[in-house]
Design brief:
It is found in: Peroxisome. Keywords: Isomerase, Peroxisome. Pfam families: ECH_1. This is Enoyl-CoA hydratase/isomerase family protein. The protein is of the alpha/beta class and about 260 residues long. The chain contains eleven helices and ten strands. The protein has a domain of about 180 residues: 2-enoyl-CoA Hydratase, Chain A, domain 1. The chain has a six-stranded mixed β-sheet with strand order 1-2-3-5-7-10, with helices on both faces. β2, α1 and β3 form a beta-alpha-beta unit. The longest helix has 18 residues. The protein is globular, with a radius of gyration of 18 Å.
């Protein structure tokens, strides 16, 4: 199993559980997480979902070795939901989503905070949106959600630079509600989740809907723009150089790419 599911006090905890791969999302984990969100959305016994990771990472993002196979192997079999299906499930998730970032968060491990109703982060965690270092485009509607959450300048730095963002900087930006010590992260996130879960589910859903409904069309439009740009760039010279460098354990060299790349 790549995802652990546990219920307590109307809070469903989803734990990404590929610690040997730093909880990187392969197609199996994308499918499992999407299915879990879809199930929680319609389960009358679930009021809140709490998402976290097992081991020292929250999520290292998309599994780059599998991404390389997707870009180069025409026979690669994709999952039922995949990345796009997970994003759709996040966009449509009607109940509060609490995210506890316990360790490294790269790619979707960082941009998923755009969908968090409450975010908490460990002092030992760091975030990175590595898109330009991979020669690809933003994802998960982060090109819309991040500027809305943290402002244009902070969002531009996060999405353009591919530099690490500390827990304290993430809090200062407004990506998370609080920074916690590692021992206090899950208890703090759970305490907040249980406060919400004690409220009427119908009211929680109504509050979230009234907050998110004005943004749904813009989020979907951003996702579509990003997916188109990502598809255009994936498998291109910059992306292939980045993936080859990752597989070979070296830093990518973009200086010898064709003009315009």
């Amino acid at each position: 199993m790549t995802l652990q599911v546990a219920d307590d006090s109307r809070v469903r905890t989803l734990t990404l559980d590929r610690p040997e791969a730093l909880n990187a999302f392969n197609e199996e984990l994308y499918d499992a997480t999407a299915e879990a969100l879809l199930a929680a959305a319609v389960d009358p016994a679930v009021a809140v979902v709490l998402l976290t990771g097992a081991g020292r990472a929250f999520s290292a993002g998309t599994d780059l070795l599998e991404m390389h196979r997707m870009a180069t192997d025409p026979d690669f079999v994709r999952g039922q939901h995949g990345f796009t299906g997970l994003i759709d499930a996040l966009v449509d998730f009607p109940k509060p989503l609490v995210v506890a970032v316990n360790g490294l968060g790269l790619g979707i491990g960082a941009t998923i905070l755009g969908f968090a109703d409450l975010g908490f982060i460990s002092t030992e965690a760091r975030l990175k949106c590595p898109f330009t270092s991979l020669g690809v485009a933003p994802e998960a509607a982060s090109s819309y959600l991040f500027p809305a959450l943290v402002g244009r300048q902070n969002a531009a730095w996060a999405l353009l630079s591919a530099e690490w963002i500390s827990a304290e900087e993430a809090h200062r930006m407004g990506l998370v509600r609080a920074v916690c010590t590692p021992d206090e992260l899950l208890p703090t996130a759970r305490r907040h989740a249980e406060i919400l879960a004690a409220r009427p589910i119908s009211s929680l859903v109504a509050v979230k809907r009234t907050m998110t409904e004005p943004h749904r069309d813009a989020i979907r439009a951003a996702r579509d723009r990003e997916n188109a740009a990502f598809a255009e760039l994936m498998g291109g010279p910059a992306n292939l150089e980045a993936l080859a460098a990752f597989a070979e354990g070296r830093a990518p060299d973009f200086t010898s790419l064709p003009p315009g790349w």
